[in-house]
From TrEMBL:
Region (Disordered): 132-159
Protein name, entry field: Uncharacterized protein
Length: 159
């Protein structure tokens, strides 16, 4: 995951990929198996355990440039840290285009994915919406990532 081409200002930013969070190893396995039916390249899916993600996130936080806080990269890794602390596992999946990204997210959601963020060059788009999501409000380095919960914190969604 530490590949320099997947980093921006010292933090993980895999442009052209989806970062998908799943509640446990079994859900990650089911989603990974289902994704194989989409005709993805053989090396399109990388899998990370909760501990692997925590290790990477702690390294990112330690080396992040202050500029990383301007965009949402730092807010995302803090939200990912909260999920990883709760045992979530991860799939990082290359997507050729927006249509394929949507198919990947839909497939992952059907197998329990909580989040699927599609990393573009300038925009990071959440592709999994929840029926109980509140309207999105301003995100900032001070507020963090808007989890679209009443408190605005990711921890509330995963309780």
């Amino acid at each position: 995951m530490s590949n320099d081409q997947n980093r921006s200002f010292g933090v993980f930013k895999p442009v052209g990929h989806l970062v998908i969070s799943l509640p446990d190893a079994a859900a990650a396995s089911r989603a990974e198996t289902a994704l194989a039916t989409l005709g993805l390249a053989h090396d399109a899916v990388r899998r990370y355990s909760d501990q692997e993600m925590l290790t990477q996130i702690e390294a990112d936080i330690a080396t992040a440039s202050p500029i990383a806080a301007i965009g949402q990269e730092m807010n995302l890794i803090l939200a990912h840290r909260e999920l990883a602390r709760r045992g979530y596992h991860w799939l990082v999946v290359a997507a050729a285009d927006d249509e394929q990204a949507r198919a990947i997210a839909d497939t992952a959601r059907a197998h329990g994915a909580e989040r699927a963020q599609h990393y573009g060059r300038f925009i990071i788009e959440e592709l999994i919406e929840h029926a109980d999501d509140t309207p999105q409000v301003a995100e900032s380095p001070d507020r963090g990532l808007d989890a679209q919960t009443p408190s605005g914190k990711e921890a509330e969604r995963t309780v």
